[in-house]
């Protein structure tokens, strides 16, 4: 009985320790026909097109309803869709 209680307490401690530590999941928006990620030369151009870009899968479009533009190592700006309203760069 004691080991069952200790196990339950340990499980509860693990659950409480991870509560509120959700991480954002995001995807880069790709051209559905070519499979190439959409990119822009400037952040302003990416932001301008962002609200009009959608994922091919409607379910994913609903899941990843937030978006942001992020500059990658090639110097181009890529549109990311996320399941969280904020992101860490």
Structural class: alpha+beta
Mean pLDDT: 74
DSSP E strands, number: 4
List low-pLDDT spans: 1-22
Report the major sheet: 4 strands, antiparallel
Order of helices and strands: HEEHHEE
For the termini, the CA-CA separation is 48 Å
* Count of discrete alpha- or pi-helical segments spanning 4 or more residues: 3
Beta-strand fraction estimate: 15-25%
State the share of residues found in helices, binned by percent.
25-40%
Rg for CA atoms: 20 Å
Query: Any idea how many domains?
Result: 1
Describe the structure.
The N and C termini lie far apart (48 Å). The N terminus is likely disordered. A hairpin with a 5-residue loop joins strand 3 and strand 4. The protein is an alpha+beta fold and 89 residues long. The protein has one domain. Strands 1, 2, 3 and 4 form a four-stranded antiparallel sheet that branches.
Architecture blueprint of SSEs:
Blueprint: H1 2-18, E1 26-28, E2 39-40, H2 43-49, H3 58-63, E3 66-71, E4 77-82
Antiparallel strand pairs: 1-4, 2-4, 3-4
TL;DR of this structure?
This protein is α+β, with helices and mostly antiparallel strands and 89 residues long. It has helices at 2-18, 43-49, 58-63, and strands at 26-28, 39-40, 66-71, 77-82.
């Amino acid at each position: 009985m004691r080991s069952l209680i200790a196990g339950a307490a340990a499980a509860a401690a693990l659950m409480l320790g991870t509560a509120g530590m959700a991480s954002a999941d995001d995807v880069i928006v790709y051209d559905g026909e070519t499979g190439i990620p959409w990119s822009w030369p400037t952040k302003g151009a990416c932001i301008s097109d962002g609200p009009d870009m959608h994922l091919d899968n409607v379910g994913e479009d609903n899941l990843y309803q937030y978006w942001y533009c992020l500059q990658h190592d090639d110097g181009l700006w890529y549109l990311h869709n996320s399941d969280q309203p904020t992101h860490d760069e």
